[in-house]
Design goal:
Order of helices and strands: HHHHHHEEEE
Radius of gyration: 20 Å
Distance between the termini: 42 Å
Number of helices: 6
Length: 188
């Protein structure tokens, strides 16, 4: 089993790679396949890799760099990585709540600055909606007692989110693309 920090790193990398590129990084798949000997490595990578377009090597690296860049921005302005890597079990709820409020505000500003988000379904949550025939199952997930063919009526439990615009700054040149936050050394 892989460690928590590596799983967390993979989760963020996969999230942003799926968000910006639509696939899971191959090195993550390889690592996970090697950690699960009972699973067939070819089956795991073959299923994901089948949806890839030929010749996407450079853009896959760029997508990974952009995912790292987004995490770096969330770390720089909201200290998100520091918070997620911290063991918060020993802090009292009041102290933790105050910290989360600040992190939430700062990270939300990062999202507002660099991503334009819009709800998938603009209706209010817990109100009736109709899911039309031919809906995109990647955008709308049916839960509960699902039966029959669309159109299907139900209660909206979550509006969902999609990115409609990304305005990230230029990527740095050189080795700095993989740095989420530089180490700080105070010299006396």
């Amino acid at each position: 089993m892989i460690g928590l920090s590596l799983r967390l790193s993979f989760a963020f990398r996969c999230f942003f790679s799926l968000l910006f590129k639509g696939n899971i990084p191959q090195e993550v798949l390889r690592t996970l396949s090697s950690c699960a000997p009972e699973a067939s490595p070819n089956a795991a990578t073959g299923t994901i890799a089948a949806g890839e377009k030929p010749g996407t090597g450079a853009s896959s690296a760029d997508a990974l760099d952009r995912a790292v860049q987004m995490l770096a921005l969330l770390q720089r302005d909201g200290r998100l990585i520091d918070f997620l890597e911290e063991d918060v079990s020993s802090y009292p709820d009041g102290q933790l709540g105050a910290a989360v409020r600040t992190i939430h505000s700062s990270c939300r500003q990062v999202l507002d600055r660099y991503l334009k988000l819009e709800p998938i379904l603009p209706s209010d949550e817990d109100h009736p909606v109709t899911v039309p025939a031919g809906f995109d199952p990647a955008a709308i997930k049916l839960v509960g007692n699902v039966s029959g063919a669309p159109p299907i009526r139900g209660l909206l439990r979550h509006r969902g989110w999609r990115v409609s615009e990304v305005t990230l700054p230029s990527l740095p040149h050189g080795l700095g693309r993989s740095i989420l936050a530089p180490a700080e050394v105070e010299v006396a």
